[in-house]
Amino acid sequence: MANETLGMNEEVARYVRTVGVREPDVLSRLRAETAPMEWAIMQISPEQGALMAMLVTLTGALRILELGVFTGYSSLAMALAMPDDGRITACDRNEEWTGIAHRYWRDAGVAHKIDLRLGPALDTLEALLAEGQAETYDFAFIDADKGNYDAYYEQSLKLVRPGGLIALDNTLQDGKVADPGAQEGNVPVIRALNEKLHADSRIDLSMVPIGDGLTLARKRP
Predict the structure, then answer these.
(1) What is the spatial order of strands in the sheet that 203-208 belongs to?
(2) Closest residue by Cα to residue 156 from 112, 210, 218, 221
(3) Which residue, 7, 40, 56, 136, has fewest beta-carbon neighbours within 10 Å?
(4) What are 88-100's pLDDT values in tens digits?
(5) Pairing mode, strands 137-142 and 114-118
(6) 202 exposed, middle or buried (CB, 10 Å; 0-12, 13-18, 19+)?
(7) pLDDT digits (tens, 9 = 90+) for 105-127
């Protein structure tokens, strides 16, 4: 029994990844290729990927919106968890990074499930709404530029169906959101969004201390 969350040192993290996660080989290979990259820190952890795959399975998600692809670990984890008729609308601006993602999607046999939209994500979201796709998505994962998180959240809330789930990554900002004196970088933006979500009666809320913080927001019917 414990009433506090266990701290994740390197030894515990290694144990979790050894016995608590069944990482497919294709995901392991993608993680290894991404590791030497300058921005490798942007890739989600295996345990978070496993959690997101589980959420996709539990919610029966057939339509997923992803904002921020990087090298494709999260989209690949979710695509592997979806049935063959599932579809992910994946938004990113970087052709080089998403080129790596597409290679692994093909290797895993899930490329047909993923519709990559290159360009500003807000433009893609506006286009989806203009096409009449409001409340047609089951799940949304937000892991793009933090300055637009609030706008991404609001648009995703329109696109996700009642009872659907929105997951927002990096909501702890290395723990700095808990320090009122921390004002650097994206910390103030994410802190303000966390406070907004806490007060938002449109959703049910749970912030999970995994990775750099994963906030789950269920759109209330």
Answers:
(1) 114-118, 87-92, 63-67, 137-142, 160-169, 214-219, 203-208
(2) 218
(3) 7
(4) 999 999 999 999 9
(5) unpaired
(6) exposed
(7) 999 999 999 999 999 999 999 99
